[in-house]
TrEMBL record:
Coiled coil: none annotated. Keywords: Hydrolase, Membrane, Protease, Transmembrane, Transmembrane helix. NCBIfam families: sigpep_I_bact (TIGR02227). It comes from Albidiferax ferrireducens (strain ATCC BAA-621 / DSM 15236 / T118) (Rhodoferax ferrireducens). It catalyses: Cleavage of hydrophobic, N-terminal signal or leader sequences from secreted and periplasmic proteins. It is found in: Membrane. The active site is at S128, K183. This is Signal peptidase I. One of its GO terms (cellular component) is membrane.
Length: 321
C-alpha cells in the first residue's frame, strides 16, 4: 500500500505542478472530485480494515502481557514492570500513507461540498468588470441561487431562481468551457438586445443612464467616463472609453450568430431560448457576448455577490450589485 499510495500522491502532485507551470490545462473541480473519491476510499479502508487490524494487534499484545505477568506471579515475582503503553501507541498510530489520505478526507469532503453546492471563491483576473469589480478582488459565488448542479458535469438537478437582467454571473466561457468568466447579465431568453453608439436598448426600450464623476483607473493611469445604469432592479456603474469605436471588431463565429446584426454602430442580437447575453461593466474593454456569443444555461456556474478580500485595498470588502 505504501508504494501504491506514493504513486497516487505523486500523480496528484505532478498534475498540480504541470498545471501551475502551464504545461497542461487544469480542471480544479475534477481534481477535487478525484481527491475526494481517493481519500474517501482510504478512509473507508482505514475505518473498516486497517484500524480493526491494528486494534486486533493491540489486543494480542495486551493478552500476551497479561499471560507473562501471570506466569511471573506464579514464579513468585510480584514486582513486574511491564509498561506496554509505548508499544500500544506505536501499533495504533496511522502510517504516513494513511495520514496523507484517510486523514485528509474530512477536510477534503468538506471543501468539496462547500465549493460544489454552496459557495465557490473566484479571483477577478481582468478589468472587464471595472468599476464594479477590480483586478485582484477575491469574490464569493453562490452555487445554488440558479439551481443546484452536479460537480464536474455541471448538470442541473434542481431549479433555482432564473438569472435576471443585472445579475453578475460566473459561467463557463463558451469557446473554452474549462475557463470561468464573469460578466453581467444584460439579456435573458427572448430579449432583443441592441448596443448601438454605446447606448443599450432592450426590447426597444433605451436603458437610461445617469452621468457620474469620471473614474480614474490606476492601472491604465487615465480617466474614463462613468455612468449609473439600471437593469431590472439593479443599479450599477459602467465605464465608456471615448477612444474606442462603437463597432465590434473581430466577432467570432458562434452558435446562433444569425440572431445578431453587426454594423458600424454596434450590434443587435435576439437572445435564443436557454441562453443569456453577457456584457462587462467596462463596456469598451470587455470581451463578452458581443464578440463570442450567447451563454447557454448549462454553462452557468453561479451568482457573484460578495468581495471577501482584496489584498491591495481592504475597503473593497463587501457586497456589490
Amino acid at each position: 500500500m505504501q508504494i501504491l499510495t506514493s504513486f497516487i500522491l505523486a500523480a496528484f502532485v505532478g498534475y498540480a505542478g504541470a498545471w501551475y507551470l502551464g504545461m497542461l490545462e487544469g480542471n480544479f473541480a475534477l481534481l477535487l472530485f478525484l481527491a475526494t473519491v481517493v481519500t474517501g476510499v482510504y478512509w473507508l479502508a482505514e475505518r473498516f480494515y486497517f484500524l480493526p487490524q491494528r486494534q486486533k494487534a493491540v489486543a494480542l499484545l495486551e493478552a500476551d502481557a497479561i499471560k507473562r505477568r501471570e506466569a511471573l506471579v506464579k514464579q513468585g515475582i510480584s514486582q513486574v514492570d511491564m509498561n506496554i503503553t509505548e508499544a500500544r501507541s506505536r501499533l495504533l498510530a496511522q502510517p504516513w500513507w494513511l495520514d496523507w489520505t484517510a486523514g485528509l478526507f474530512p477536510v477534503i469532503i468538506a471543501v468539496f461540498f462547500l465549493r460544489s453546492f454552496l459557495f465557490e471563491p473566484f479571483k477577478i483576473p481582468s478589468g472587464s468588470m471595472i468599476p464594479t469589480l477590480t483586478v485582484g478582488d477575491l469574490i464569493l459565488v453562490n452555487k445554488f441561487h440558479y439551481g443546484v448542479r452536479l460537480p464536474v458535469l455541471n448538470t442541473k438537478i434542481s431549479e433555482g431562481t432564473p438569472p435576471q437582467r443585472g445579475d453578475v454571473m460566473v459561467f463557463r466561457y463558451p469557446p473554452k468551457p474549462s475557463l470561468d468568466y464573469i460578466k453581467r447579465v444584460v439579456g435573458v431568453p427572448g430579449d432583443e438586445v441592441a448596443y448601438l453608439n454605446k447606448r443599450l436598448t432592450i426590447n426597444g426600450q433605451v436603458i437610461q443612464t445617469v452621468a457620474l464623476p469620471e473614474y480614474f483607473d490606476e492601472d491604465a493611469m487615465r480617466y474614463f467616463k462613468q455612468f449609473e445604469e439600471t437593469l431590472g432592479e439593479q443599479k450599477h456603474r459602467l465605464l465608456n472609453d471615448d477612444d474606442r469605436p462603437a463597432f465590434i471588431p473581430g466577432a467570432d463565429d458562434f452558435a446562433f450568430k444569425q440572431n445578431c446584426r453587426y454594423s458600424v454602430e454596434g450590434v443587435v442580437c435576439k437572445v435564443p431560448a436557454g441562453h443569456y447575453f453577457m456584457m462587462g461593466d467596462n463596456r469598451d474593454n470587455s470581451l463578452d457576448s458581443r464578440y463570442w456569443g450567447f451563454v447557454p444555461d448549462k454553462n452557468i456556474v453561479g451568482k457573484a455577490f460578495f468581495v471577501w478580500m482584496n489584498f491591495s485595498s481592504l475597503k473593497r470588502i463587501g457586497s456589490f450589485n
